[in-house]
Write a structure and sequence with these properties.
By secondary structure, this protein is mainly beta. It is 0% helix and 43% strand. It is built from no helices and 8 strands. It has strands spanning 6-9, 20-26, 41-48, 50-55, 58-63, 67-71, 76-79, 86-92. It has a 5-stranded antiparallel β-sheet with strand order 1-2-8-3-6, with no helix packed on it. A 3-stranded antiparallel β-sheet has the order 5-4-7, with no helix packed on it. The protein is globular and about 35 Å long.
Length: 110
């Protein structure tokens, strides 16, 4: 069950910014349901809990206090595999998703 998950915007999505900032509040089992890829770069910091970040073919187990960064053109997705909520500060270059044949839709996190 992913009830209670949502994304808190730190920057207005008006197209006038070089960066996007969010705090992802992820319930156990919540995350993206697809590989995401777009132009730019991403950086994040795990504020609370733990989650698994997949970048290309590598899986990274991240917990509170860990940080990450990668080029956004590399396919990536994530999931909270823990038993409690995870909060991740996530900053990225605003991007237009790169379409991939047969790609699944993103699960909307509210």
């Amino acid at each position: 069950d992913t009830k209670g998950s949502y994304v808190e915007r730190l920057v207005a999505p008006d197209g006038d910014h070089l960066l996007e900032g969010h705090i992802h509040h992820l319930a156990p089992g919540a995350g993206s349901l697809q590989d995401i890829a777009h132009h730019g770069e991403e950086v994040g910091y795990v504020v609370e809990g733990k989650f698994r970040l997949f970048v290309c073919v590598e899986a990274f187990e991240l917990k509170a206090g860990d940080s990450f960064n990668f080029r956004s053109e590399i396919s990536h997705h994530y999931v909270n595999h823990g038993k409690g909520f995870a909060r991740i500060l996530w900053v990225s270059t605003p991007g237009r998703q790169v379409a991939r044949p047969g790609q699944r839709k993103t699960k909307r996190i509210k």
